[in-house]
Amino acid sequence: MGITVDNVSKHFGSFQALDRINLEIKTGSLVALLGPSGSGKSTLLRVIAGLEKPDSGNIYVSGRDATHDPVQARRMGFVFQHYALFKHLTIRENVAFGLEINKWPKARVKNRVEELLGLVQLGGLGDRYPSQLSGGQRQRVALARALAIQPQVLLLDEPFGALDAKVRKDLRQWLRHLHEEVQVTTVFVTHDQEEAMEVSDEVVVMNKGRIEQVGKPADIYDHPATPFVMSFIGPVNVLPAASGILPKEKVAASDRVFLRPHDILIQPEAIEEAVPAQINHIVHLGWEIQVELLLESGQIVNAHLSREDYDRLQLTPRQQVYVKPKQVKTFPEYAFN
Ligand code: ADP
Ligand code: MG
Question: Of the four listed, 20, 71, 112, 325, which is most buried by Cβ atoms within 10 Å?
Answer without folding.
Answer: 325
